Amino acid sequence: MSSTPGTPFDFGTRLGLVFIIEAAFLSALAVTWVLLYIGYSAVKIKRGASRKWSTQTHIHWFFLNLMIFDLIQAAGGLMDIKWVAQATVTEGRYCTAQGVLKQTGDVGVALTCLAIAVHTCGVLVFQWKSPPITALLVIGFIWIFIALIIGITFATHKGQVYYGVTQYWCWITARYPSQRIALEYLWLWITAFVDLVVYASLALILKGFIIVNRGSIRFTTSEDRVQRQFTSSQSTSRRQDSNSVAMRLLFYPAVYIITVLPIAVVRWTTFSNANAYVPFAATAFADALFASSGLLNVILFALTRPKVLPSREVMVLDTSASPFGHGQTRAKRSLTDYSNDDIRDAVETPISASFSPRDKYNSLIMQLP
Questions:
Q1: Most confident by average pLDDT, 1-5, 37-41, 179-183, 254-258
Q2: Average pLDDT value for residue range 255-263
Q3: How many domains does the chain have?
Q4: Rounded to whole angstroms, how far apart are CA atoms 234 and 216?
Q5: 48-83, pLDDT tens digit by residue?
Q6: Per the domain annotation, does 367 fall within a domain?
């Protein structure tokens, strides 16, 4: 169930490509729905309403940029429809367009996820203070970088087949292995590594194994944790909440790594050794999973960020120690309601008997991607 360049696809190969197309379609559908809702929210919903989409923080801008790149990535996968219909891949403008879309989407998603991880680490650990316009500058850099790597490669390989047939679809051809690594895979691998390190570290902070206070970082001892649990006014319910949030954090690097690792391994095996045999079933599975990136990002965001979806604030009585008030009735905020000022205030709140690391980082976590 494989195919060599120039030979017609058999039924199994075409069926595998259909699965990839379906995954890309679901991603495109989910991302389009979110983008339409964001547009509707920004234009139609009254200012200050709990359901209104806002771009008041870096995370809002980064998420919007991530959705756009997810849509571009899905569009590249949807273009496989032509190869299924004609049972082969042919070079030409359509093929070149698919290669450009695939590279743009893949690198754009990776760099945006990298920006989210670095920003999150900077705010929570190093107490960075920057206006939301910084996010726009970072996003602008990402787009300029991608435009340059595509524009320069076109200029330097003029008259050559740079984007062409790569057996089952179009991408950077096997003649340019260095460009494949430096201009795409390197960024996917860096992002996966940084995501894993950042979010695993934050999970340890949430669980009280690491303390960060005004830029100083130290590991806690078992005695520290016992004393903190003994003196903390945090309820069992809130402790369970913090643990739940910490575990939920790990879904993000896990999902990114799960979607990136299989396709990276398959493609690396293929272009690093021309004689290596990779079953098409493995290729189809890896690419279908990779094409599901947009869908998985939307599902995760919908589950962990209620404000993306229409919701109403619920008034609850909070009598526990909190950076937002003591023993008072307040509106229960959704996960995107917290501004950078809230984050900075929480970061600068000293750790005391009445405000444990879990309390501190439970409030900070509201802004995490």
A1: 179-183
A2: 88
A3: 1
A4: 24
A5: 555 555 556 777 888 899 999 999 999 999 999 999
A6: no
CATH number at residue 115: 1.20.1070.10
- Pair 289, 16: CB distance under 8 Å: no
Grade residue 1 by pLDDT with cuts at 50, 70 and 90. very low
Tally helices (H) and strands (E) across the chain: 14, 6
Residue 282 has which token pair?
Answer: 């493995």
What does DSSP assign to residue 183? I
In tens, the pLDDT along 41-57 reads 777 765 555 555 555 67
Among 60, 70, 69, 59, which Cα is nearest to 38's? 60
In whole angstroms, give the CA distance from residue 347 to residue 340: 10
Domain, as residue range, for 35: 11-211+234-313
Q: How far is CA 74 from the centre of its chain?
A: 15
State both tokens at 339: 């501004």
Return the structure tokens found at 137: 């500058």
Q: How far apart are CA 369 and CA 300, in angstroms?
A: 10
Q: Is 123 helix (H, G, I), strand (E, B) or coil?
A: helix
Give the pTM: 0.78
Token pair belonging to 218: 């130290």
